[in-house]
Design goal:
The complex is a heterodimer of chains A (261) and B (245). Chain A has 261 residues and is an alpha/beta fold. Chain A has 11 helices and 10 strands. In chain B, helix 3 crosses helix 4 and helix 4 packs parallel to helix 5. Chain B is globular and about 50 Å long. The chains are: A alpha/beta (261), B alpha/beta (245).
Chain lengths: 261, 245
């Protein structure tokens, strides 16, 4: 069964007459419990495609067409209230830079508990318990201490673990990960990818995984779509796309990557 | 012949803590580091953030003074290429002026030299009259390279020169740097966190961790038979999409 279907999505910027077609007719589907990867260079439209799912596109951008079906309901036609309830609960997102996605003036514990209480009516004591449980789930060594820490007191890897915990607290069905390890050192990146693999299996999650790195895509994704200038030029099972690419762009991109290995 | 000789370099920075910024101790960014770079070599310095590789590069450039130890350079002609081509080029200056700025004396032929430098980095001569914001990240890094080579340096410190670029652009810039090296025999100190980039570029490499060089070897040997556990960890963290391996 498909959790997400995107059909001919178009997101444009600027004047109606001569718009900048940042996402220009992208279609793909994510099967339940599968990880779909979006790969491409900067400006190819991968982040905008992902943000469209929760209608968080930047100011000046507008939907010029297409449908986004989440559990068969069209999100582009949905009311704001419905989307508000969806964001951070059924669909959650982990951004690239945990230093800017966490609020610097609140403790980690406060922020996680706040995320829980926004969607679950369970009262503060239970929310605190739940927050601690999720800190343990993402393998924070000393959850009780970290709970009372501010983001700046923690390392980049720990902050990203917290972002992941926050994305999981409301039992999402789909987690969007936008370059979740790009800001991290390689050894920390390996740890975070291990954590995501573990969580994916335990929690039976579907994921949309954005990366510019084919190594990460190969490691994490069942299927992959290659984006170029607002289009998805190629799509298929990850191994097939990476070992026998058909489109010239995918071939040339992989050639560049191969030169380094 | 030796181009750079570092002898037990140490550099610490004070750490301040709390509202009143009281001095709470110090962190040793470079800890008793010795290394030698041969003339014409591409020497790689790899490490994670905070390992001290940029500080070491700055000491070699003379931007920072070491607390102890000394640096001997076989040349006074050195230059640098930084990571972020968005912050390293003055947005209010024309590209031609940015590139010419390193020349101490401006002469009528300066314009020609700027033009030559632009051609060397495969940008049109007309780029000289434009401003940095009119160029992409890769083009800006080419401008930074033109600015570095116009002074005819013998040593260039490249500090993460491709880390903020897309992989296809990375390859173009690396090949450009390689081509320049081949033609002019410049010595590079190539600083990067990315082992793949180092492997592509450098003949010899030193691995830094917490201010110390934990291993130094030819790139080939380091990759095939890493000795230090940290080098092994770094190498095992590289993700390959190559299913045949």
């Amino acid at each position: 069964m498909k959790i997400l279907q995107i059909e001919d999505l178009m997101v444009y910027f600027g004047p109606q007459k001569r718009p900048l077609r940042a996402v220009d007719g992208v279609s793909f589907e994510i099967e339940r419990n599968k990880v779909f990867g979006l790969v491409g260079e900067s400006g190819s439209g991968k982040t905008l495609t992902a943000l469209s799912i929760i209608k968080l596109i930047p100011e000046g951008a507008y939907f010029a067409g297409g449908r986004i079906l989440f559990n068969e309901k069209d999100l582009l036609a949905a009311e704001d209230e419905y989307l508000r309830k969806l964001r951070g609960s059924k669909i959650s997102i982990v951004f690239q830079d945990p230093a800017s996605s966490l609020n610097p003036v609140f403790t980690v514990g406060y922020q996680i508990a706040e995320a829980i209480l926004a969607h679950q009516d369970i009262g503060t004591p239970s929310a605190v318990e739940l927050a601690l449980e999720f800190l343990r789930k993402v393998h924070i060594a000393d959850p009780k201490r970290v709970f009372h820490d501010y983001p700046h007191q923690l390392s980049g890897g720990t902050k990203q673990r917290i972002s992941i915990a926050m994305a999981l607290v409301n039992s999402p069905e789909l987690v969007i990960l936008d370059e979740p390890t790009t800001a991290l050192d390689v050894t920390i990146q390996a740890q975070i990818l291990d954590l995501l693999t573990e969580i994916r299996e335990k929690e039976k999650l579907s994921m949309l995984f954005i990366s510019h790195d084919f190594g990460i895509i190969a490691r994490m994704c069942d299927e992959v779509g290659v984006m170029y200038k607002g289009n998805m030029v190629e799509r298929g099972p990850t191994k097939q796309v990476l070992t026998s690419p058909k489109e010239p762009y995918t071939i040339s991109l992989l050639e560049s990557v191969k030169a380094f290995i | 012949m030796i181009m750079v000789k570092c002898d037990s370099l140490t550099k610490s920075f004070p750490v301040f803590k709390g509202y009143l910024k009281e001095r709470a101790g110090e962190v040793t960014a470079v800890d008793n580091v010795s290394l030698q770079i041969e003339r014409g070599e591409m020497f790689g310095l790899v490490g994670e953030s905070g390992s001290g590789k940029t500080t070491l590069g700055k000491i070699i450039l003379g931007i920072l003074k070491p607390d102890s130890g000394n640096v001997e350079l076989a040349t006074g002609r050195l230059n640098v290429i930084f990571q972020d081509p968005y912050n390293s080029l003055d947005p209010k200056m024309r590209v031609g002026d940015i590139i010419a700025e390193g020349l101490v004396v401006r002469r009528p032929e300066t314009k020609d030299r700027v033009g030559e430098a632009l051609e060397l980095v495969k940008l049109p001569r007309t780029a000289a009259t434009k401003y940095p914001h009119q160029f992409s990240g890769g083009e800006r890094q080419r401008i930074a390279i033109a600015r570095a080579v116009i002074t005819k340096p013998e040593l260039i410190v490249c500090d993460e020169p491709v880390s903020s670029l897309d992989v296809t652009v990375q390859l173009q810039i690396l090949n450009l740097l390689k081509g320049i090296q081949k033609e002019s025999g410049i010595t590079y100190l190539f600083i990067s966190h990315d082992l793949r980039v180092i492997k592509y570029m450098c003949g010899r490499v030193a691995v830094m961790k917490a201010g110390r060089i934990v291993e130094e070897n030819t790139t080939r040997s380091l990759y095939s038979t890493p000795a230090h556990p940290y080098t092994k960890l770094l190498l095992s963290s590289i993700l390959s999409y190559d299913y045949s391996r």
